[in-house]
Amino acid sequence: MYSYDTVAEAVNGLKQRGYTIDFNLEADNICCSKTPLALKPADFEITEFYRFEGESDPADEAVVYAIESLKGDKGVLVTGFGISAEGIGEELVEKLSVKR
């Protein structure tokens, strides 16, 4: 796994390695607003993830996920810590839970 100091470094590094799709969370999937691509939890794997903790501001805490679909589409999803079930489905919350 690679090492990055900031969220921006992680996103840029992943994009340089082919993770070019920008994913966003929806109710029960992740999607790309620029394409019709939408993936249910069973349709993708998290190949890497990077946690960032804000030194002085909790709002700076984030997780950067490298996502690969079963069809080979690769992209990045950035979320805050503590994904809650509010607004997104339980299956998606479970898939994105960072387990150490």
Describe this structure in words.
The chain has 100 residues and is an alpha+beta fold. The chain has one domain (7-96). The chain contains two helices and six strands. The protein has helices spanning 7-16, 90-96; strands at residues 21-25, 30-31, 38-39, 44-52, 62-69, 74-80. Strands 3-2-1-6-5-4 form a six-stranded mixed β-sheet, sandwiched between helices. The chain is globular and about 30 Å long. The mean pLDDT is 85.
Quick structural overview:
With 100 residues, the protein is α+β, with helices and mostly antiparallel strands.
Give the count of structural domains. Answer: 1
Uncertain residue segments: none
Work out the radius of gyration.
Answer: 13 Å
Task: Give the helix level as a range of percent.
Answer: 10-25%
Name the quaternary structure.
single chain
Across the major sheet, the strand order is 3-2-1-6-5-4
Main β-sheet, in a few words? Answer: 6 strands, mixed
Q: Mean pLDDT, as a whole number?
A: 85
Number of strands: 6
Our measurement of the CA-to-CA distance between the termini, rounded to an integer number of angstroms, reads: 14 Å
* Count of individual helical segments: 2
Give a topology summary.
Blueprint lengths: L6 H10 L4 E5 L4 E2 L6 E2 L4 E9 L9 E8 L4 E7 L9 H7 L4
Parallel strand pairs: 1-6
Antiparallel strand pairs: 1-2, 2-3, 4-5, 5-6
